[in-house]
Design brief:
By secondary structure, the protein is an alpha+beta fold. It has helices at 52-70, 109-129, 132-137, 139-155, 158-166, 171-196, 202-211, 216-236, 238-244, 247-250, 266-269, 292-296, 316-328, 340-347, 360-381, 465-468, and strands at residues 15-18, 21-23, 87-90, 95-98, 101-103, 261-264, 335-338, 386-392, 399-400, 406-416, 422-429, 435-438, 446-449, 453-463, 475-484, 490-498. It is built from 16 helices and 16 strands. Strands 8, 9, 10, 12 and 14 form a five-stranded antiparallel β-sheet that branches. A hairpin with a 2-residue loop joins strand 4 and strand 5 (101-103). Helix 2 (109-129) runs antiparallel to helix 15 and helix 4 packs across helix 8 (216-236). 26% of the residues are buried. Residues 1-14 have low confidence and may be disordered.
Length: 504
């Protein structure tokens, strides 16, 4: 018989599920028949799991947290007079810096493309393997895992935490609870601090925060982010996934019979029950009802009840069950990633149901991802450093002149994405005999645009009386042409010249 762990007392064991195997005194808090609309929260005490999937979660946590906390400090040389932070949401200057990319407000469609690709990728992953994003990489899961690990460090594993909560308030309990919450607050503060660093130069803002010279808005958002991280990751935990997050309700439309899901093999596990000393396996299932799968679940569910809204597909129950199967000498995989189709086939005695990863919905999601990514890549390749926007005056559509001519006024904005000033020539084409004048400018259409800036000019376009008859009232289309004086690159923007209708 396996010896009793030293950190547990005999009272922690209600009985044994099998010789040497603890039977956990735990109930699925969030099972279907216990789900009430107005019910006080019952705290979930997840036990530490050991195994492949737990190790994967540790690795994902380390990678994602490292990227999140360290990315604002990564430098990227963009030349003089430009920020050297690799990832910077420079709202003050209206730009987003992503390594070698510089995205202007006029190019927010790139952000839209990234969001669309992210959503489609989530759809694809869900169609293939259920809520693995929720179980491994979702920020709520990552920070909750971190908070639970801190709680476990100060208070012990599941049984120790349960005992601690039941004990009266002593100096030891106050110390453990205080250190737990203080650690959570420090993590939350670091989380909020890292987030505000994405909006301003990290070293500069860090020094300002410490010295008390940072803008008030920085302290405000630091406080908001700190509070929400502490509340959602440390206090609310599974409540966020169950009640606040909409994805559990949406995922039902993404999965089908061929989606890999964390599943309990009832055909192999039932009838379940404790395994007595000397008892064989004839006439019973492999499940010894130890409830280890329930004890490790961070959502407080029993995977043996089938597919549930609360399940985040973290697979910790697989690790727990495999550990028990090893102890009792039964094959692993009583709880495993499986599909509904394969489970139905096994129940019918067919053990060769193929795994269908290529299905209409997965092909559709993949094609859409490739399409959107291709459009974005094409846009980036054909991207220019010069953009033009033309806006016709809305107050007065046209002005009849005393000599019989017609004048229209326009606002022309020239965006220079280069890091040095650009000289451009502005002209019109397509209007018979048109004369162009830039208000407040004595040149012949040549203007200078500052580096990384927008130059707006007011342009008056006049058609002389001898050419008014060549217009096509009430509006005539023509082009504004902006030509880079250095490279010869041309940008064209169509516009409308308004004039009176015949007989008016």
């Amino acid at each position: 018989m396996t010896s009793m762990p030293q950190n547990l007392k005999p009272a922690d064991f209600i009985n044994e599920a099998a010789p040497g195997v603890e039977r956990h005194d735990v109930a699925a808090i969030n099972r279907r028949d216990r789900r009430e609309l107005y019910a006080a929260r019952q705290k979930v005490y997840p036990r530490l799991a050991h195994g492949r999937f737990r190790n994967i979660k540790w690795a994902v946590m380390a990678i994602t947290l490292s990227v999140y906390y360290l990315l604002p400090w990564l430098r990227w040389d963009r030349g003089p007079n430009l920020p050297d932070q690799a990832v910077l949401l420079d709202f003050a200057n209206g730009r987003l810096f992503l390594f070698f990319l510089e995205i202007w407000p006029q190019e927010l469609y790139y952000i839209t493309g990234i969001l669309v690709i992210s959503a489609l990728s989530l759809f694809l992953v869900t169609a293939l393997a259920g809520r693995v994003w929720c179980g491994y990489a979702c920020p709520q899961t990552v920070w909750t895992d971190l908070m639970i690990a801190v709680e476990r460090f100060w208070q012990g594993d599941r049984n120790a935490r349960i005992r601690l909560d039941k004990e009266p308030w002593t100096a030891t309990k106050i110390f453990k609870k205080t250190m737990t919450h203080l650690s959570w607050l420090l993590i939350a503060l670091a989380t909020g601090g890292a987030l505000v660093f994405y909006f301003r130069d990290a070293p500069t803002l860090a020094a300002e925060l410490v010295t008390g010279t940072a803008p008030a808005i920085a302290y405000l958002f630091l406080g908001i982010f700190t509070f929400t991280t502490y509340l959602l990751g440390g206090i609310a935990r599974e409540q966020v996934c169950i009640y606040m997050c909409p994805w559990p309700r949406i995922q039902g439309a993404m999965v089908d019979r061929h989606t890999l899901l964390v599943s309990y093999r009832a055909d192999r596990g039932e009838p379940r029950g404790p395994l007595r000393k000397g008892q064989g396996w004839e006439g019973r299932g492999d499940c010894i009802d130890c409830k280890a799968c329930v004890a490790v679940c961070p959502m407080g569910i029993d995977i043996r009840d089938g597919l549930q809204l609360e399940c985040i597909q973290c697979a910790l129950c697989i690790d727990a069950c495999n550990e028990i199967m090893d102890k009792v000498g039964r094959p692993r995989g009583l709880i495993a990633y499986d599909t509904i189709a394969k489970k139905e086939a096994k129940a019918a005695g067919v053990n060769h149901e193929p795994l269908k990863l290529v299905r209409p919905r997965t092909v559709l999601y993949s094609c859409l991802i490739v399409l959107v990514a291709g459009v974005m890549a094409l846009g980036l390749i054909s991207r220019t450093t010069l953009e033009v926007n033309v806006l016709h005056d809305r107050g007065v559509l046209f002005v009849p002149l005393s000599d019989g001519g017609v004048r229209n006024a326009y606002s022309v904005k020239v965006l220079n994405k280069r890091h040095e000033a650009v000289n451009v020539d502005l002209a019109v084409e397509g209007l018979p005999g048109a004369q162009m004048r830039i208000v407040g400018h004595d040149g012949n259409g040549a203007i200078s645009v500052p580096p990384d800036d927008v130059r707006e000019v007011r342009v008056l376009v006049t058609v002389p009386p001898e050419h008014v008859g060549d217009l096509t009232p009430p509006s005539t289309r023509f082009d504004f042409i902006v030509r880079d004086a250095e490279t010869g690159t041309e940008m064209r923007r169509d516009a409308i010249f308004q004039s009176a209708s015949p007989g008016k």
